[in-house]
Structures are given as structure tokens and as C-alpha cells.
Amino acid sequence: MLLQDSVLSIVRVSSFLKTNKGCHSRFEERPPIQQKHITMIYSILSLLLALNAISTNGQTLFQSQALTQHNLYRQKQCAPPLAFNQTIADISQAWAKSMSQTNTLQHSTNKLNGHSLGENIGYMCSSTPSVINGSQPTAQWYNEIAQYNFSNPGYSSATGHFTAVVWVATKVFGIGISQSSTNKCYYYVANYYPAGNDISSVTNFIQNVKKPPC
């Protein structure tokens, strides 16, 4: 779980705008910590980081948390649950690693069986070692619901993450995360299949982005 008392609040996310962005987040430093406590604190954080990588049914804890949070939101929005797909997760992980190596937030051209994948990407930076909970990026994406107009449905760059998360026709999902070796930023990628946000018709949004009650 992300340590809220030591983590920067700024989160950058991107939906369908294919722009390159580095990790330019500002850090909010804590008051100085007495030297004798530093070793103990970092030992605890290192242990938490290791625990975060433990697998759950073939998924990392981060992936399991993200899937659970996706499905909680999908249930709320009258959409069926997603299934975790390891192939898609591997694709997501490879792209997250690529972004972390270049410190660049950029959409991929990833495909599955020749079909484009839906994609949400983002990064989160902290001023100290931290454990990122998979529910956090999912919540950031879903919270765009506040800007979605159910009376005038359709695609918007301001709500594209939300609509991708709850798209009814999407069946499977994978997510990956990678830490930059040059800064304290984590880059994450979620891929969806079949892809949502089909802008060919407003009807697609009426049918796939549901408004409660179900």
C-alpha cells in the first residue's frame, strides 16, 4: 500500500493523447528525520516492497489489487467483471518497463491477435521508497466519472480513462508496473481487450458506459 505520509500527491495520467512526458513531479519533503531512525525505516520499506511482489494466483499483488478495484467499479457501473489475462499483463509489463527506462509517458501500439488493445497509462512519483497499491491508479482513472456527462455520452480526453475501465464489452485485462532506475517514479500500463472507447458511434457509449442504478 502506498505510504501516504511520505508520498507525493501529484499523479500524471494519459488517455488517448499520444504525447511524451517526463516525470516532472514536484516533491513535498517531510521534516528532517533523526538519523538513528533512517535505517529502520528504510528496512521496513524494503520489506514492504518485497511483499508487494508476492504472487496471488499467478498475479502480482499489484495486479490482483488493480483487477479487484476494476471489478468493483465495473459492478457499480453495471458492467460484467474482467478476467485477468497473463498474455496481456506481459504486454503491459513490457511497455511499463520501456517507459520507465526512458522516463517517458507515451501510448504503445500494442495488439493482441492483430487487434489493438485499449490502454490506460500513468505514473506516480514519491520522495521516498514506497509501495504502490494497484487500486490507486484504478481509482485515479475511475474518478474521471465526475466529468462524464451521461446525458450527452461520448468520448472525451477528460474521461477516457474512466470509460475504458467500465466499458461493458471489454472482457479481459492485464496491467504492469515498473520503477525508473534514475528517479523515484513508477510507470504503469493497463491494457484491455476488446478495446473500449469506440468513437465510431455515440451508441457505443450509450451501450457500454452505463449509469446506475443497474
TrEMBL record:
GO terms for cellular component: extracellular region. Pfam families: CAP (PF00188). PROSITE patterns: CRISP_1. Residues 61-200 form the SCP domain. SMART domains: SCP. It comes from the Eukaryota. This is SCP domain-containing protein.
